[in-house]
Each structure stands twice: as C-alpha cells, then as structure tokens.
Amino acid sequence: MSALHDQRLAALRQRMTETGTDLVALGPSSHMYYMSGVDPHGDERPVMLLVSKSHAGFLMPALNVDSSRQNTGLPFFPWADDDGPDAALQSLLQASGLPQAPNVVLDETMRTDFALLLLDALPGASRRFTEDTVGFLRARKDDAEYRLLKASAVLNDRAIQAGFEALKDGITELEVAAVIRDVYKKAGAVPVFTSVCFGGNGAFPHHHTGDTRLKAGDAVLIDAGGRLDGYPSDMTRVGFFGEPTAEFLEIHGIVERAVQAALAASRPGVAAREIDKAARDVIAAAGYGDRFSHRTGHGMGIDIHEPPYLTATSETVLDEGMVYSIEPGIYLPGKFGLRLEDIVILREDGPEILSDMPRAAVVR
What we know:
This protein has helices spanning 3-19, 30-36, 62-69, 86-96, 112-120, 134-139, 143-165, 173-186, 246-265, 272-285; strands at residues 23-26, 48-52, 56-61, 76-79, 103-106, 126-128, 190-198, 218-228, 231-232, 235-241, 297-299, 306-310, 323-326, 329-332, 336-339, 342-347, 350-353, 362-363. It is α+β, with helices and mostly antiparallel strands. Strands 4-3-2-1-5-6 form a six-stranded mixed beta sheet, with helices on both faces. It is elongated and about 70 Å long. The mean pLDDT is 97.
C-alpha cells in the first residue's frame, strides 16, 4: 500500500474505534479504491476488502489476485471456482480477530449476494452502511484529492470553452460534444458525460445530446465532465447564439443570484438543506419556483455523484474539506433551460470554486 492508503487505513480504524465498529466490509467499488488503491474486476465472483481493528485483507478470486497485488501489500485470501469462497472467507474472518456478534459496516454499493455471504458467516452480527466510517472520511477531501479535483476542473474549463468556440450555424449537438470529448482525450483524460443542449432542449435537465442543429436565436447549455487521473469534473455553462433576448438575460441574472446566495450560505456547520433553501428562495421570489425542478447540488470525489447531497430535506452538516456542486436552474419548456453549475470545496471561511471559467453567458 502507498503511504496515502496507509494513512487512510489508520484514519478508518480511528473512526471504527469512535463508532464502535468491529469490521468494515467493502466490495469492488469506489470505497475499496479509496481505501486501498485496488479496483478489481467486479462480477458474480465474491470479492471483498475486510478491515478490522487489527487486520485487513482481501477475499479475492484466485484468477484476479496477481493483477490486484500490483496495487497493494495487503494479504489476499484467494479462492478458486472449483472450491468456492466459503473456506477462504472463514480464514479471512478468523484472521480478522472479531468478537462474538460483531458490529459490521457494509458497503452500500456491494452486491446483495456478497453482503449476505458475509452476514451468513457472522450469525448475530449487527450491520449498517458506511456513512459514519468510510463515507465520513471520503466526504472530507485531503490535499491530494483537492489537487486532483482542481486539475480535472481546469481541464474541464478548456473542454467546455472549446465547445462554445465551436458553435456555428447548422452545427449539431453531437458535433459540439465531439469537440469537447477530444479535449479530454488529448489531455489523457476520459470523457464521462457531455450534454449539449440547443434551444428548447435545454429545458430538459437531463437532455440526451442529439442531432439538433444550431440556429440564430438559440440558447445553448453545456453540462460536461471528464475523468483525469482517476478524478472527475462536472460543470454547466450557458451561452447564446446571436443577440441574447431580454428574457434569457433576465433568467441568467436570477440564476446567478441563486448561485451567489448558495455560495454565501456555504459555511462549515451549516445544514446542507440551508444551501438548497438559499438558492431556491431566490428563484421562488422571482416567480420561477416551479421551474427549479431538482436539488441544488451533489457531492463529488472519486464518484461524480456522492454525498453530501444538497436537497430541501438533507440534515447533513457541512464540514471543511467537503466538495459539492452548486447548480440551480430555471427551465422554460419550448424556450430554453438555464443552469449554472460550479464545484466547490468548503474551507474554514467559505467555499473555494474549483473552476476558473466565469459564469457569464457566452455570446457567439
């Protein structure tokens, strides 16, 4: 394991002590990758990382051990298809040194049959998910993660700017999306999603980019993200092809004020629902409350969508190091949609925006 993963394992064990946890069980997921650097093939063959206060090791199909061993020094408890996983799992549990009826944390993204295999081997165990252990740690980004997220955001700036620069009469949404994806690829990043919306298509918050052609008088919404060195980006910007209409400029101003209100409300110790309320109140006061149809934001780290979620009901208390989106929007069917999205990391004195690209509308 790298020094970084050693530190994360030590931090997890500290959280386990604080929360009375005897065992953390992670499947082939972003949780496992975060804790160990191992990102194994996931199929129907059970694979788990089990962490107790005194031991950590992998239950791993024998055919995947050699490739996974390149990324960790933790021990493997391999099993072959001819034998099945039961004996290897029992050996791993014995090495884990668990008490009777242990308190177990399960990876909420793990296959159900993996989870039941483990629980059947631990009669009397209590169980919960990772929110106060691995989830707690992942929600608070360390300096290494910040640098990776910042680099990914700066690349995303270039990609989205290239998309707007490509706008010309008759170009299709798909052609603009290809320009954006090429920027990621040339930088060694992987395109993850590219939503290009012309005119009325922007009124669909999750529009599927298609063959719609750009024409004068169209609003343009671009929501895109790539993955650079394992960490994603996510940003939405808007523009106008031709002279912006008064309505477009009015809506842009309202959404920008909603972003500013959410940024101002973002402070350590504030409940996530208060950030959602700050943005939503601005839009509602302007008469467009029923046109803001989604949450204000989502967390981001290894996964593009992860806790914390900024919803009207979220009681999650924000803390330093948390990374999340602020993305209010107004959607006018048959006309356009306007969403402004930035990813921020929460500092002691407020949010730091990862993107360097202004939120002003791009006029072409």
